Each structure stands twice: as C-alpha cells, then as structure tokens.
Amino acid sequence: MFDDIPEGLRVPAISRRRLLQLGALGIGAFSAAPLLAACGSSTDTASTPASGGKKKGGDLVIVRDHDAVNMDKTTVFSNGSIWIYVQMYEPLVAMTDDGQGVKPWLAESYEMSPDNLSCTLKLRKDVKFHNGQPMTSADVKFSIDESSKTKGGWEFINSAIKEVTTPDDYTVVVTTKYPWAPLLADLSCPNNGIIPKDYAGKTKDEFYAAPIATGPFMWGTWQKGSSLTLKKHPSYWQAGKPYLDSVTWKVVADSNARAIQLQGGQAHINEAPPFSSLAQVKSTPNLKVDVFPSTRTDYIMMNQQKKPYDDVHVRRAISYAVDRESLIKSILFGNGTPANSFMMPSTPYYDKNTPGIQYDMAKAKEEMAQSSVPNGFTTTWLAMSGDAVDAAIAQVMQASLKELGITMNIQNVDPSAQHDLTNKLDYEIAHSYWTMDLADPDELAQFALDPTTGGHSFDTGFNDPEIIDLVHRAEKEFDSTKRQALYSELQAKAAESAWLAFLFYTPFPYSRAANVQGFKVLPTGTYHMEDVSL
C-alpha cells in the first residue's frame, strides 16, 4: 500500500497499501504459478511450536520518521498504520514469507469449489480474541462483511464477494458473484483481518480507538505524534509466542537522531535508515543491516483534476524529463532499478518488455511543444518535510522541468499532512510510493487505475474507461496465459497514458541491534513480530 516516506530511501502501503505515502522501499517476489496453486485446496497449518533458544520477554522499540494514521483496517491505507495493525488483526490465510502465495492461518484449511465460485474454510478451534472470547465463524462473517460495505476504503478488495455463510461455528463459505482469480489472496489482505462480531459491543469508533483482535499483540497506548505501544497477547494461539512483552513504534523524525538512538540502545530497530548510512552502520559494533527484497515502486503523481495535468502531453513530457539512473545513483547509492511499469518485477504478470517512458529530454521537449502549455507553466511540488529522498527528487525535478519552461515551486508540509492532502486531491504534483499487500496484481491494478476505488487512481483522478475495463477483465480470468496477455496490454496502455511518472524499484533497508533475532520483512513491507525476540 502506500504510505509515508521514511528517509531510508525514503520512502504506501497502504494498503495494499495503495497503497500511500510514509514508509520504506521495495522489490518483491511474487509469481503467477504459486498464486493459482493457492486457489486449490490445502490442509497445511501454520507452525505453532516455539523455537528453541528464543529468549522470552523484553520491550522492543522501533524508531520511524512518521506516526500511524488510524487503526481502522477497513479504511486506512498508510503503511505506517498497516505495519502496526497487522500485529493485531490476523487473516484467515496469510501470505507466504516469499510473497508468492498464501498459507493457512486462522483457517486451518481451505478448498475452492470445482466451479471456482466458492471457497470453504475450516477455522482453527484454539483462537481467542484479546478479551478472551473464542473466535467463531460469526466473527469471520462480521469481519468480512464489515470490510465489504465500507465506502471509500478497502471494499474494492472484496468487490467480487457475493456472500459469506456459516454452516457451523467453525466453517465459513465465501461465495463470489463470478469466478474470481484473486480470492484466496484477497482473504489474506489486512482489511479482512478478523475482529469480534458487532465490535465486541462497542461502536465502530470506540472499537478502533482501542481494537480487539486475535493477533500476537494487543492494544496498549498511543501518544499520537510520539509513540504507539502494543502489549503481548498472553493467550495467543501459536504456542510459546510472542516472545516479546511489548513492541513500541516511536516517532523520531530526524534520521541522525534515529541512528543515535539505535547506537545508544534506546531503540532496537530503525525502520528506514538512509541508504547513504548503511556502510557506516555495517561497520558499527553490535549493529546489523538488512536490505530486504520488496514490492516497492516510487513514482511521481500528477493531479489530473487540475490543469494542465489533464493533458497527456504534459504528463509525458514530465515523465521523459526524469533521469532515473541518476536518481538511483545519487539517492539510493545504487540500490534500485529504473521502473518501466506500474507493476514491479516481483509481482505476478509483470511484463519486463513494457518499455514505459524513460529519460529522454528531446522527447520531453517534443511532448511539451504538442501540449496545451507549450511555453511552460508554474506548479507546486507538495514535499514531505524532513524526507531526504523526497527533497532530493524535488530538487532534481525542479532543475529538469526548468528546461521545459516549467517553474516548479516546492511547498514543504508534514508527511502526514502530505498524505492527507494528496488523498483529498488537494495538490498539483508530488512523490509517493506503493507496496503490495497481497500476492496478486489485482489489488494494485484496481487501486492504481480504477478511480472508484479508495485509491482514486493513486490519488491522481485518472479515469480511462478502456483501461478500467482491462483491469476488471483480468480479475475474472483463471487461465494464466490469457491473464498475462490482459496484464501486458494493461501495462502498455497505462505507461502510454503517463498517468504516473514511474521512478524506481527499491528494497527495504533496516538497521537493528545485533541482539534482535527473528526479524524479517516480507516483500509487502509487513513483518511478523511474534517471531522476534531479544
């Protein structure tokens, strides 16, 4: 999903995270074959025994440059929120660690019907909510139905679901309106995390102010703008886990201050150290560096509800004016590759032969000459204050666009404010990024290219009926060859529209104390804190 952007590469999310602007970076590893296999049946269960040698206890602190937005799993796309709330909300099936499929989680088994119109899931019988209440099929039905009826949120993920039925307390049947290739992957999405029926007797607002779910960590305290703490769930269904007593996400806006806190022992994990600092961290005693493969794509978004960004020639000109190789060398210190598609190499059905629009200043000038503003115009870049990468991209863009007669002013706002303003389409041009939330490209295609979803076409307002039709045809195609053809056509047409200026694909950089064990970031940017110990 997309989200806020940390200085590490800085940079949501989202969900799905869509999704949108405050986080880290990514390249993942999805493939079509495992995804189709996941639509069959499985009776494997998630491993539950505690690993030998893991030390119990401890209060782990993660430092990051931005705060979460909200804990409402049905509406919030920010990665800064998702990476926290997935520690509480668990799905029926979970994405595999390599991002290539799904595995049983709160459901111990699942099986698709021969006509691909329904999936039957058998629930675990040892799962308890944070309030001690056992989880049943009634809670599952309520949770999926709640997410499906949201307006302006994650409901697009569940758009194919016709109904959820509960033959007994531990059986759930999800029926779709038509054959739906991404169903199993969709059920693993954070928006479909399981919560108690009827919000455990609370109103929705009361519930999401102090959520109750089944995950390894339960609600603690939130000092907004400062820190958020989750506490250990003592009755977690995975025996012996979690190992930690608590996890705190602490907001430290300055990258140097985060590094100092990590070195000084006030923090255990730095969510997004600048790439420029990684070599130094590697040489620091008792500190480790991890660069995790990801599904992150950075891009420049242009608000097409404001002129002249409704002009495809203007958008193409700007995209041609971006020197991606230089950005990768100067900002990522070589940790990235130029983006050619809105999809990333780690997703199923990515087409490496889609050229996209790459740096060519001569072509940029040709496009401007054909545009509605051949002599240029003045615009404002909505920047994230304190974000080194965003600032560097803005400076490079400012110089490049000047060659096209475009005067680009830079307005700095708090990262959370930038997220809110772009989501409301109250901006002209800005930088953001996306990370996947599940192992199927449909989440990205819908969020990025269908303006009726909660993503507003990546907050650009882009609306092309032909492209939208391709998005929805690909969702219903189970034949992998035919589905690939649809996604290849979709990538080519989307690139031609230049509705975004794709920048680069990057990994997730993390630094940590050497005594942190079991910490691993999935290609989507999420992580399983139940596996982490000190």
UniProtKB/TrEMBL annotation:
The organism's place on the tree of life at top rank: Bacteria
Transport among keywords: yes
Residues covered by the Solute-binding protein family domain: 102-452
Pfam families with a match to the protein in the record: SBP_bac_5 (PF00496)
Signal peptide location: none
GO BP: peptide transport
GO molecular function annotations of the record: peptide transmembrane transporter activity
Record keywords: Signal, Transport
One Gene Ontology cellular component: periplasmic space
PANTHER family: OLIGOPEPTIDE-BINDING PROTEIN APPA (PTHR30290:SF9), PERIPLASMIC BINDING COMPONENT OF ABC TRANSPORTER (PTHR30290)
Family the UniProt entry places it in: Belongs to the bacterial solute-binding protein 5 family.
Name of the molecule in the record: Diguanylate phosphodiesterase
Naturally occurring in which organism (per UniProt): Planotetraspora kaengkrachanensis
